[in-house]
Amino acid sequence: MKAIYEGKAKALFETEEAGVLRVYYKDDATAFNGEKKESIDGKGILNNAITTQLFELMHDNKIPTHFIKRISEREQLVRRVDIIPLEVVVRNVAAGSLAKRLGWEEGTPLLAPIVEFYYKDDALGDPLLTEDHIRLLQVATHKEVETLRQLGLWVNDVLLDFFGQHGIDVIDFKLEFGKVDGTIILADEISPDTCRLWDKETKQKLDKDVFRRDLGSLTETYGQLLTRIGGNGQ
Ligand code: C5P
């Protein structure tokens, strides 16, 4: 069957049911807007398992998401949404592009969580947007931006609590949202591909920075993360 959308790490297919899509998690890993690319055996299976667990956690906390259920090692059923072309990044600790932008040392805690919006546009390299830019682009209303910010902070509270219980710090993460009949719900994935997660004690990175920065085996790292949060990928 032909994918209706194929991204860097996932492909989306229609199903027989209107409004329901099948997501297939691939093994491809990319970084730096596709400049670094590799196929990593088993990554899709691990990300499907971790995302499933985290979306179920969102569900338990009454956060609306597109997730319906995991149907195989690499597949999920999700609700079809109109994706809002904004990447919503929430940060608790300076790392990555924020550390670079402010000239801060990675690992510097922020006084309070912050929310940033990036324009989902590969050709432009997903630039950081101000709220005025968002208004110019007409990709979300002022009210929708506020909803995205609140949902982002709410997801952060849930993730901080959950990972905290497993001895893991949530440094930052990226969310994507979509609309169904005008209502905004969480979409895409929450996985070590889209989060920075550090061991509280050793500060070991348990996320895609291992791939971006050539720090070791990505599947070992993601497998370790899955085990720590109580999953087994089955
Ligand atoms: O690179 P930067 O520091 O802005 O990334 C912030 C967070 O958003 C990181 O957890 C990173 O994994 C995630 N991110 C992502 N997809 C992007 C950009 C960032 O998942 N296109």
- CATH architectural label of the largest domain: 2-Layer Sandwich
Secondary structure: helix percent: 25-40%
Q: Give the integer mean of the pLDDT values.
A: 97
Task: State the shape.
Answer: globular
Distinct helical segment count: 6
Tally of DSSP β-strands: 14
Tell me the major beta sheet: 7 strands, antiparallel
Structurally, the number of domains stands at 2
Structural class: alpha+beta
Bound molecules: cytidine-5'-monophosphate
Please give the alpha-carbon distance between the first and last residues.
25 Å
Strand proportion, as a percent range, falls in 25-35%
List the uncertain runs: none
Can you identify the CATH class of the largest domain?
Alpha Beta
InterPro entries: SAICAR_synt/ADE2_N (IPR028923), SAICAR_synt_PurC (IPR033934), SAICAR_synth (IPR001636), SAICAR_synthetase (IPR050089), SAICAR_synthetase_CS (IPR018236)
Keywords: ATP-binding, Ligase, Nucleotide-binding, Purine biosynthesis
Family: Belongs to the SAICAR synthetase family.
Domain SAICAR synthetase/ADE2 N-terminal: 4-227
